[in-house]
Design goal:
single chain; 81 residues; 5 helices; 72% helix; mainly alpha
């Protein structure tokens, strides 16, 4: 959870090539994972707010966001964030 929380504090001020890579990678996530990433990192909601919005427990949001970020990193093949 700490890793994801610190991620959320960072901005997406990435070079354009990395943004393209990121958007391509997002396309490879499930609709649920995409929504999770969008709410956490683009809308900058807390895990509790996302849990409330999606009708899930905060623990589930935490677990699923770690999985989603792991999947993004796997797909991107390099660490952009």
């Amino acid at each position: 959870p700490h890793q994801v929380h610190s991620l959320r504090q960072q901005t997406f001020a990435l070079p354009i090539e990395d943004k393209i890579t990121l958007y391509d990678a997002l396309d490879r996530l499930s609709a649920f994972q995409k929504r999770l990433i969008y709410l956490l990192f683009f809308k900058d909601l807390t895990q509790s707010e996302v849990a409330e919005e999606l009708g899930l427990s905060q623990k589930k949001v935490s677990r699923e966001s770690i999985k989603a970020v792991g999947r993004l990193r796997e797909v991107m093949g390099k660490r952009v964030f």
